[in-house]
Design brief:
- By secondary structure, the protein is mainly alpha-helical.
- It has one helix and no strands.
- The mean pLDDT is 93.
Length: 75
């Protein structure tokens, strides 16, 4: 191989190492974002369950209150 080809090969190897290091940095950043997203999704599901249950109980209480009101008034 000529020295020109060796230099070109060296440049390509250097660029490849740079791309590889950027990929590693992106992987660690993506892992960090994934962890935060997972916690957000868990919190969201928990809040949905709690508030959904509370809304269900509230609606049931309102319905029973309306039923007892109409039953007491004889309507």
């Amino acid at each position: 191989m000529t020295s020109e080809l060796m230099r070109a090969l060296g440049r390509i190897e250097g660029q490849l190492k740079g791309v590889h290091s950027r990929l590693d940095a992106n992987d660690s950043k993506l892992d960090s974002i994934d962890g935060r997203l997972r916690m957000t999704e868990i919190r969201s599901a928990r809040n949905g369950a709690v508030f959904g249950s509370a809304a269900g109980v509230g609606i049931a209480l309102i319905v029973e209150s309306i039923k007892s009101h109409f039953k007491a008034n004889g309507a």
